[in-house]
Amino acid sequence: MRRLFVLFFVSGFPALLYQVVWQRALFSIYGINVESVTIVVSAFMLGLGLGSLLGGWWSARPGVRRLFAFGVVEVAIGAFGWVSLAAFAAVGEATAGAGTLATGLFTFLLVLVPTIGMGATLPLLTAHLVDRSGNVGTSVGALYFVNTLGSAVACFAAGLFLLGWLGQAGAVRLAAVLNLTIGIVVLAFARGESRAAAATQDADTADGREVRGLLPLGAALGLSAAAGFVALSYEILWFRLFAFTSAGAARAFALLLGAYLAGIAFGSLVSRRFCRDERGDLLPTVGRFVVFANILGFLVAPALATSVTFVWHYALGLVFVAVAAGALGAVFPLVCHLAIPPTRRAGEGLGRLYVANIVGASLGSFLTGFVLLDRFPLPGITIGLAAAGIAGGGLLLLVGRRRRAIVVAAMALVLVIVVGPSLLDGLYERLHYKTGYDGQRYARLIETKSGVVAVTPERLVYGGGIYDGEFKVGFDDLESDTNMVWRTYMLSALHAGPEEILVIGLGSASWTRILAAHPAAPRVTVVEINPGYLDIVRGDPVVGSVLEDSRIDIVIDDARRWMLANPERRFDAIVSNTTFNWRAHITNLLSVEFLELCRSRLKPGGVAYYNTTWHPRVQRTGATVFPHAMRVGNFLAVSDAPLRPDGERLARTLRAYRIDGAAPVGTAAIEAMVALTKRVDDPALLDARHVLETGASIRARTEGMAPITDDDMGTEWDWLRIDTVDRVPHR
């Protein structure tokens, strides 16, 4: 059994790698907007739920060899994993840009086989272990512990170094090798497993009737679903908090999920000590864990906000997550022990409870992430969720007649409702300013299911916890251009007169306002993933008019998904003030594959123009994909046509510019920008803020650097970089 525990621990490692990489690959195909993310995650969970039912049914068949079945499943998962990315790419090429329903169907079919296999393993091994131990709770607790701990280790390994070293394809190959190895080893063990050993107990023992009488299956299913709902709801809320405080660092979610799963694992381990006495009344114990878990779940947000004001980094907050998740993790094994008799049908009973848990988790993910966060602020949802969870635990204590525990639960409920708002006051400001926090408050804060957007009193815009521009479209000289919009105007030196412009990302809308005011009067299409930016822009005296301008069409969607869904659209310029190169999923807008997509959507002589955030590897990628490139500050213009900055045309265009009836660019600034067009590749300016550099110079300067691809994910998982954000606004 110890060897089997080791194998099941290792089995949890590739399962999490698959989930991370497969979801990432599907997001590249179908988009990372909240609708696509919800569909992909739901498809995974639906497959796991069906697998748990199938595995439970299979484990209860007379004479079934459960170890043999487990080995076969592991081999099948490994075989699929080995070819999975190629299969995803082939299907994605044929279905990219599909509608919501079609996306859900294709995603579900792509992950159906492996997720069913993953879901089937726990019921199979539970039935095998219950046959030998005669105890459901200790069996589920042990198996849940080792498998979930393996997944937690995979999260930490993936976030810290594995994905950065191996990329998507390498990580999936490693996972497939592990699955195949586990399967082969288990099949060797299973050679000695007799068919009779798989059915040693009868389903109608007295002990079975006694345990079922303690907690009817219907009640257990409801309790299991509620536990899954609460656990995933907290995970959604915690992910938003950690994504915000880390400014969307790629590894933040992996580390959060690792801490969460580690807590679940050790909570399962702790639950085993309460399951050793089969006749004990465990319902009040479940109630205590539920109350305790929700108290801790509520405290994660204020604890994280307080900790970063002292130690600045979010690592300490992961400890709070692990402890809270540990209390949540103890509930499921206890419920299984109460409801499932230790018979040959133990795996089947577990499968039913597991699918209920997954259904509850799916509902929690959908309701909290898709509905509640679009209607209520996160502090209010946190208080409501904790209050409901504590009240639910109190009901279990009431049924168990534990008066003292009921009083404690009631006091906790009152404290969460009464004191909670003050503990969560200024939550996002504390997460944003960290050790520099001294009571600052945002002028505006917009929360949607797609993210958090804030505006400071200084009119700086922050999206997801990091600088995203300011409401400013004009400047008198280059040094006063704090919003660096000189890069927007410099596009006129590279393109004679764009008629159709695609803008990826609205941000503060300053760039859109400038581009739409071009003397050539272009039509502008903006694709923005977060509708919260529209609320931030609406009514602003500088940029608010973009929402009423008939020449500007704003679409709420993932840019890559929208471009794939609209192959007939062609543009003179595709402009993206791309966010920082280390943020999660930014590779989707920086990779070779995306640039090739841009190339296919450009008119002859068209220009793709995007922010490299100064990273040389991002610059090399663009200069490698396109034959012609020009760096403009930290921006990069790329095209299939030669790029020769025309200073005279730039001067004429800037003098003709009018925004709200006034010239936005001062005479001194125009002269300085024209002077830059005459100093291309000037060695004295290559490290300066205002610079023009050709593609040939970029390629020579970045010799030896590999272009960014969807597979290697660029600089997102750079293991040498610590997830920290400068304490001053990024430009």
Which secondary structure elements does this structure contain, and how are they paired or packed?
Layout: H1 2-30, H2 34-59, H3 66-95, H4 100-133, H5 136-190, H6 206-214, H7 217-245, H8 250-271, H9 283-311, H10 315-329, H11 331-339, H12 346-371, H13 378-399, H14 403-423, H15 427-433, E1 444-448, E2 451-455, E3 460-463, E4 466-470, H16 486-494, E5 500-504, H17 510-516, E6 523-528, H18 532-537, E7 552-556, H19 559-565, E8 571-576, H20 592-600, E9 602-611, H21 616-625, E10 628-632, E11 635-639, H22 647-656, H23 667-677, E12 692-694, H24 695-701
Helix pairs in contact: 1-2, 1-3, 1-4, 1-5, 2-4, 2-12, 3-4, 3-5, 4-5, 4-12, 5-8, 5-11, 7-8, 7-9, 7-10, 7-11, 7-12, 7-13, 8-10, 9-10, 9-11, 9-13, 9-14, 9-15, 13-14, 16-22, 21-24, 22-23
Q: What features would you describe in this structure?
A:
The strands form two sheets. An eight-stranded mixed beta sheet has the order 7-6-5-8-9-11-10-12, sandwiched between helices. The chain has 731 residues and is an alpha/beta fold. Helices cover 60% and strands 9% of the residues. It contains 24 helices and twelve strands. Mean pLDDT is 89; it is low at 195-213 and 724-731. The chain has three domains: 1-200, Growth Hormone, Chain: A (Up-down Bundle); 201-441, Growth Hormone, Chain: A (Up-down Bundle); 468-701, Vaccinia Virus protein VP39 (Rossmann fold, 3-Layer(aba) Sandwich). It has helices at 2-30, 34-59, 66-95, 100-133, 136-190, 206-214, 217-245, 250-271, 283-311, 315-329, 331-339, 346-371, 378-399, 403-423, 427-433, 486-494, 510-516, 532-537, 559-565, 592-600, 616-625, 647-656, 667-677, 695-701, and strands at residues 444-448, 451-455, 460-463, 466-470, 500-504, 523-528, 552-556, 571-576, 602-611, 628-632, 635-639, 692-694.
